[in-house]
Amino acid sequence: MNEENLHELSVEIGAELKAQGLWITCAESCTGGLIAKSITDIAGSSAWFDRGFVTYSNAAKHELLGVAESTLEQYGAVSEQVVHEMAQGVLHAAGADVAVSVSGIAGPDGGSAEKPVGTVWFGFAGKDGRVLTAKQQFSGDREAVRLQAAVFSLQTALREFIKN
User: Fold this and answer.
1) Run of H or E including 125
2) Does the structural domain 3-162 have CATH classification 3.90.950.20?
3) pLDDT for position 164
4) Is residue 121 within 8 Å of residue 83, measured between CB atoms?
5) Distance of CA 81 to the CA centre of its chain
6) pLDDT tens, 69-93?
7) pLDDT tens digits, residue range 15-54?
8) At what angle do helices 58-65 and 80-94 cross, to 10 degrees?
9) Residue 100 has pLDDT above 80, yes or no
10) Among 10, 38, 34, 42, which residue's Cα sits nearest to residue 120?
11) Is there a contact between 145 and 138 (Cβ–Cβ < 8 Å)?
């Protein structure tokens, strides 16, 4: 995976979204805006992307996306339950057709035995009410984990919610 893969994927997603008249949004934690950047690197992206959220802290996840404080306390930010609520929250907040959410541990610190560095949870939501979650374990340094997470996010959104 490299930035060229991410760019090519963003071009493909943009073409599909534009052709279908769909909008995508994202709620990012460990990727820190990389997904939104890759989408908006494509000329004309204002036709399929209006806004995204970088919700790095638990407070931001709660305040901007409506993730329940009890969910954050019980499961932690890097969990299936949190990305599920993040995806639904950002879909609603942005009024989009497709939403992607990401929360993980990019490293080099912050990992644990249960959630080692490279653990990333993803949430995907569609206006049709469908929600999908997935967990990946990536390797490499912080930049590599973030890049792999961004690519996985867009690949999955394209396959499961845009081209289906």
Assistant:
1) strand 119-126
2) yes
3) 77
4) yes
5) 14
6) 999 999 999 999 999 999 999 999 9
7) 999 999 999 999 999 999 999 999 999 999 999 999 999 9
8) 40
9) yes
10) 34
11) yes
pLDDT at 135 over 90: yes
**Distances 8 to 13, 154, 159 between C-alpha atoms, Å:** 9, 11, 15
| Residue 147 CB-density burial (10 A; 0-12 exposed, 13-18 middle, 19+ buried) | buried
Longest dimension (CA), the chain: 45
Element (H, E) at 122: strand 119-126
Please enumerate, as own/partner, the contacts of 104-108 that have beta carbons within 8 Å and a separation of 24 or more. 104/29, 104/30, 104/78, 104/145, 104/149, 105/30, 105/78, 105/145, 106/30, 106/31, 106/142, 106/145, 106/146, 106/149, 107/141, 107/142, 107/145, 108/141, 108/142
